[in-house]
Amino acid sequence: MRLESTITSTDPHTFAASDALDLLDWKQTIFDLYAFIRHAPSPETAWERWRGVRDRLYADHPQSPIPADVRDAFDGCPFYDYDPAFRTIGRIEDRAPERRGIAVSTGGTFAFTRIGVVRFALAGAEH
């Protein structure tokens, strides 16, 4: 279900009700995507869906990180071809909560709390 608001703001620093609804729609689309991936008939089918949904969100969604005035030129995210050798299963390990910051494209940081780590093997090495 897609919710829409008829109220929009022209101020780029305002987070309007329509923005909140768009963000919820983006998140729900991602939640649905990962639910599909967990139950996909094959890993390659899951990967193909993941690529398609992400490309569609970036190209068309109001919450796309691609500026609206250049989305017409967007030709899809660059991905490597599917390679089953890079498929791995991770083990989640709890950690004491730790506040961290992630650099973002605006030059600032996004604060989050690390609550765990993922361990996995790839190409014969533990990561």
Give a description of the structure.
It is built from two helices and four strands. The protein is of the alpha+beta class and 127 residues long. The strands form two sheets. Strands 1-2 form a two-stranded antiparallel ribbon. It has a two-stranded antiparallel ribbon with strand order 3-4. The longest helix has 22 residues, at 17-38.
List keywords for this structure.
22% strand, two-stranded antiparallel ribbon, single chain, two-stranded antiparallel sheet, 2 domains, 2 helices
What's the quick description here?
The chain is of the alpha+beta class and 127 residues long. The chain has helices at residues 17-38, 43-60; strands spanning 91-103, 109-119, 121-122, 125-126.
Please render the helix and strand layout as text.
Blueprint: H1 17-38, H2 43-60, E1 91-103, E2 109-119, E3 121-122, E4 125-126
Antiparallel strand pairs: 1-2, 3-4
Strand neighbour order, sheet with most strands: 1-2
Shape: globular
List the secondary-structure elements in sequence, H or E: HHEEEE
Based on CA atoms alone, the radius of gyration comes out at 18 Å
Please tell me the total number of domains. Answer: 2
Tally of helical runs: 2
Oligomer: single chain
